[in-house]
Amino acid sequence: MSLFGLPPIWIAPMAGEAASSALVAAVSAGGGFGQLGAAYLAPARIAEIAADIRARTDRPFGINLFCPQPWRRDDAALDAYLARLAAWHAELGLPAPARPTQFEEDFEAQLQASIAARPAAISFVMGDPGAARVAALQAQGFKVLGTATQVAEGLALQASGVDAIIAQGCEAGGHRGGFLGSAEGALIGTMALVPQLVDALGIPVIAAGGIADARGVAAAQALGASAVTVGTAFLLVDECPLSPAYRAALLAASDADSTLTRAFSGRMARGLANRVTRELEGAALPAFPQPNAASRLMRQAAAKAGRADLISLWAGQALALNRAPGTAARLVAALTQGWRA
């Protein structure tokens, strides 16, 4: 029996460049479960993209949001970070970096836009949405999922009533989704994390991290996962609007090019090592989301200029397994071969 009547192959809800209606719709139409990473999207934009997904396919899809992050504005640390960006701004022909006027979108407004879009599932990362919010969403017919990087987080999310847990192993690309303890203390691999969560919980577990082909899918299922999410491999499908510089960097990457860094956003994330991650390694940074907002202009300009050394190249550890797969439907079919019905 499939999880919630959905296919077993899900695309990871990747924010940023991959938050594309064409990509999400192609995954769902191709036999997988498409998910929109909406964390950086304005509420109106969530509505627009969701409408376009529905115009492209009648298959179900999901929406993912970052839980609100506790953070304190630190202008001194932010100014020091901006000073580090100044030379790179100059290389790109940009004006000197300035303090952002907005650091993040309004979470409650994003959530209301997501509810109005009527996805099949709403998932959360970087926190516990809380029992009241979970119950309210379920009462409106949504499946609600939370993200755990350790058993304690899975138990907390289960206590809040979520329908399933996404087990984010340390191999996964992008931002770490944990919310209890230190990020460094929750770097548990998918192979170890999934069975521990399966044993500890009474709700389904979805495996995420380092899954790029049918072998990874089969392994996750053998560990007790009820579905899998795949991120990096989908960045290379035809429908993903990835910048040429990002795509070329992924295609050239080897297994040792992966790193964990706070350099671009202030929060630990996995991606390809480049000039920024190396030069800011160990630097004291203001808390997320301050660097994320401050570095956005540089990253956008660098992507347009083909400068992979100055953009965040989020990617998981299965780098050598991620090679141009053609369409999203083709990749979904290849991954599904690893799943036992």
From TrEMBL:
Parts forming coiled coils: none
Transmembrane segments: none
Names of required cofactors: FMN
InterPro entries the UniProt entry points to: Aldolase_TIM (IPR013785), NMO (IPR004136)
Keywords, ordered alphabetically: Detoxification, Flavoprotein, FMN, Monooxygenase, Oxidoreductase
Organism superkingdom: Bacteria
Catalytically driven reaction(s): 3 propionate 3-nitronate + 3 O2 + H2O = 3 3-oxopropanoate + 2 nitrate + nitrite + H2O2 + 3 H(+)
A GO BP annotation: response to toxic substance
SUPFAM superfamilies, alphabetized: Inosine monophosphate dehydrogenase (IMPDH)
Pfam families: NMO
GO molecular-function terms, A-Z: nitronate monooxygenase activity
UniProt record similarity statement: Belongs to the nitronate monooxygenase family. NMO class I subfamily.
Record-linked PANTHER family: NITRONATE MONOOXYGENASE-RELATED
Protein name: Propionate 3-nitronate monooxygenase
Source organism: Roseateles saccharophilus (Pseudomonas saccharophila)
